[in-house]
């Protein structure tokens, strides 16, 4: 997918590139995550947006609407009551979309994995691109995950959502 | 601290239907039993006749296997002299019914719904007996010992039905009105009733329902508000939660006491030290473990620092809710400074696992005390900065003044505690009234509000932040020498059979842990009395009459932490 741009004219700085490259370049530098904070990790997610970590310098700007978001941060435990909402919001995001599972609970159910009401990892419900372990992970870890998403996007790699959709198309079943 | 047996008898003297009068373990709590039929009369006499106006705890516990059934537990407090009373009602397996007491305290209604949800006890005459934390279609009552948890947890089959429907607000209240004399009406309207009511004004056709949450930017977690609107004005509001119910109380029954500390840390995730402290207070009371004087001071120090971080987090959220983003940048800057100390002392930024039976995990690292002292002296100046941004901000004052007003009567009716109660001028603070840890040695000043509106609650919290910094300094200065943990406390604590109820003043109010031990290394029952739960359920009484924009400001002054509410 990644096609290098061709610089047509050094002097006037004209750049010719496939539209896909330009879109990925733009999107990769303005990754707007949808906050889906349910529990403890949400506090560390807030910290990422605060003065010490300041994600806005990377163009990462938290959104509250799935329709404006490129990636979804699942920060916290997902239980049987919230699970349908996670899926609903995920489905409302437009492609390309990425999912970060932040913290042990979103990765695997964490300390509550053997409970009667806790989903053992958000990947049971929606495809996940990046897993951030920790209980809760440090803000640096979440920042690294966001930067990884941006790199993948700039490089034109398929997101888990697209891989999932392609696999289903190949099998001839609907999503 | 053991209360003499004579006073224990006096509290219940002359009330018909009370038996087995005694004292709860080594605590000053008086305890007695009664029958389901006499319950309402006994509690009414305690509340109206003897001044026990604060409902502190309403929960249930499984009875021992020889006598199958459920035991209801009620705890009430007389605030004038701090007398604490606990009442138990034994319900046999085939007769899990008890009259509701929500006619005496409206705040009992959601607590009874929780017991109905988790234990299957039916409250006769309850006006709104629906599940509250679990999904409406959840099979079984998980806190019963007979409820078998799958060893592998939730599986694909469970997920399939969970994803097939939303599973909340779908069920009708269980009609348990077999005895109309027990039926109770709550002092606030329900959304469904308001939507159907035709008052002849012609306006009822224009009413509409607004759902806020569970994923909403200003809901401070996964909380669902269900509002009935007439134009811009809210005429009824209800709260739905349970989107963060993660089985903490059930899992605690399968973990050792040391491991339960790690679970309760995550219950109140903004201020984990307080749940740890309430839990360990109960464990130490049950197992009669002494805590060293130095550990008591360290516990006070960490609690007060944690109260500072909790209030700064709240202030950030409150500012954002009313449109002021900048205070968040300053408050999180200062929060980070304290979290660095936490990380140095306990090893964790948010999940500490620092308090241990008999003391704390480790001493202060070398030099930390001096650096903390230097830092704490700057806190007042930082708070001046927040006040310059919010207190002196005309928009903020206009947005928060005169809305969400709560009278002291409402506070008592709903069991509201902490800064929300103090904002209405109710002078309660467990640090002063019921000193735990080393608080007896401290000079505690309790800030109070006058009007009881959102602004007063804000002002009380700001004053408490200054107070916490002062108390933390006092703890550093008065820190005694000696061991930070009592030597010889076993790793696996096995308290003798019994019960304990220990409560502390968390940043949100009265946080209690009710523990029952059957003599094994795991608790038989662990219940967290969540202050935010009671504070949140005052919303249906406070929201009507407000406008949509005010709802956000009122809810932000509650300081909701869903982890502690849903558990």
Strand content of chain A: 5-15%
Q: Uncertain regions of chain B: pLDDT < 50 for 5+ in a row?
A: 1-9
- How would you name the CATH homologous superfamily of the largest domain in chain B? Cytochrome-c3 Hydrogenase, chain B
Question: Given the structure, what is the number of helices of chain A?
Answer: 6
Q: Biggest sheet of chain B, strands in spatial order?
A: 1-2-5-4-3
State the helicity of chain B in percent bands. Answer: 25-40%
Residues in helix, % of chain A: 25-40%
**Gyration radius of chain A, in Å:** 18 Å
Structural class of chain B: alpha+beta
Q: Please summarize the sheet with the most strands of chain B.
A: 5 strands, mixed
Q: How large is the share of residues in beta strands of chain B? A: 15-25%
Low-confidence stretches of chain A: none
The ordered H/E elements of chain A are EEHEHEHEHEHH
Total of domains of chain A: 1
Rounded radius of gyration of chain B (Å): 23 Å
Q: Mean pLDDT of chain B, as a whole number?
A: 87
Task: Furnish the topology, listing elements before pairings.
The complex is a heterodimer of chains A (175) and B (567).
Chain A: E1 6-9, E2 14-16, H1 19-28, E3 33-37, H2 40-48, E4 71-75, H3 83-92, E5 98-102, H4 103-108, E6 130-132, H5 139-154, H6 160-171
Parallel strand pairs in A: 3-4, 4-5, 5-6
Antiparallel strand pairs in A: 1-2
Chain B: H1 5-12, E1 18-23, E2 30-34, H2 36-49, E3 54-62, E4 69-78, E5 83-92, E6 97-99, H3 108-119, E7 122-124, H4 156-164, H5 191-196, E8 208-212, E9 224-230, E10 233-240, H6 248-252, H7 257-265, H8 272-287, H9 293-321, H10 326-346, E11 355-356, E12 359-360, H11 368-389, H12 394-400, H13 408-414, H14 419-423, H15 430-433, H16 454-477, E13 498-506, E14 509-517, E15 523-529, H17 531-536, H18 539-542, H19 548-556, H20 562-566
Parallel strand pairs in B: 2-5, 6-7
Antiparallel strand pairs in B: 1-2, 3-4, 4-5, 8-9, 9-10, 11-12, 13-14, 14-15
